[in-house]
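Session log. Operator J.P. requested a structure for one protein chain; no other inputs attached. Running the standard single-chain path with token output.
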Amino acid sequence: MRERKRTLKALLDAANMHTGTLRYSDHLDSQGRAFYERACQMGLEGIICKRADSRYQQKRSRDWLKVKCASHEEFVIGGYTDPSGSRSGFGSLLMGAHDQEGLIYAGRVGTGFNTRQLTQLSATLQELEVERSPFHGKVPDSRAVHWVRPELVIEVEFTERTRDGRLRHPIFRGLREDRNPEEIRMTAAKQSAATQTTDTASPKGASKARQTSSDKRKNAVSLLGVRLTSPDRVLFPEQGLTKLDLARFYEQIHEWVLPHLARRPLSLVRCPQGRNDECFFQKHPRRAIPASVPRIDVPEKQGSAEYVYVESPADLVGLVQAGALEIHPWGSRIDRLDQPDLLVFDLDPDEGIAWQEMLRVAGTLRERIESLGLTAFLRTTGGKGLHLVVPLEPAANWDQAKAFAKSLAEAHASDDPKRLTTNMSKAKRAGRIFIDYLRNARGATAVGSYTVRARQNAPVAVPIRWDELNAALRSNRYSVENLRRRLSALRADPWADFHAAARPLDADLLKTLGVK
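Structure written below.
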């Protein structure tokens, strides 16, 4: 395979055919797991893995593998089966989602449970048992099923659906106590072909079950008109920070958050049960987010996909209601999706890199950016790195912006190759600072200013002045607990001149770095 790719690249180089319809696809020689995780975060279907010494074969082979990303969705429990063998609690859960007719069957999940979950969930299910099926339509092989009132929502990971809407390889990922079962609706992707009406369930019975579900959420509170369920759930155990605490945090600092976040498509890191439980990155949360939070259909290679965005403090609270512990905006706004208005250079240090070295590299990269007539603003990330954010007038397209950022980052790394790199491979980054320019592609994101990270002690990504970057500062210095003190003590916004400093990536500037 290596020889074939070298030959292909040489042919394309000779024909100058690296743009347009035909393009050379590069590859990585290591860090396959990290590459796979990154592909899934970007919403891609998966990756192709090939043995480097393999030959081309016109048949399926273990030498070439397609590794798919898994999907996550929420379903309502409508029944369960008895355990078999040495297993306790229950065997599997019967899942469904609502449409106009009622609860539609979507399959069974029997893996992913630990012993504690089997015991606790089994006790809850026994309390919810009813005589009749809550599903609208026939359920296959249901003779030994215990039916339950459809009041519990679960999150399930799976690879794909069958033609009749059933899940393949489902795995239980957690109980969603923050979700109302009525909100779990049947989408086109979930839709099952088995929608025959039977007399095992009636609209009257379903209505009664839904009313009971509403009654069980009496501890919900309202903030800015948004209903917060399980407000006392601890999201960050280090401080005992609850769901309501996080929602109030955003309510109190929204005047700082929204100018950097509003009207941009968002990707989210959701941890519905808290930071120490299951967390996952989602570009298209669909019905996980309250209906009051605005949506936009974004054109993609195949059709379009739905993204959420925010415009108000209430929208921020809506994201908290859905368990969003991180908010990652696009580098463009919804009215000019294909023209970025900022660039992000992420300085990501390898373990053991001294903070003083981060200060030096941030300073030299700033000088390079400003030598081109652009302005770099500084942001702590809430982790271990730093962001240099460059405001732009929205003129160039995404391909031009990414190519410009790549050329700039590579030029800077080439000046100090022993300490800097633009190679995302962990093996190639050992002992170096990775200058990540990949945030500057269509659909790529970076954590939003003044938003929380899903890390220990709830750190926040915070804009700072350049004169604040010193040996005493650390990237995770500010958190939900101390950020409000900083904001109240500021005499001026550290990024007050951000929008005024915007410049276009015009033809002359692109040409400076060899970008067409």
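Operator note: The CA atoms of residues 171 and 264 lie 33 Å apart.
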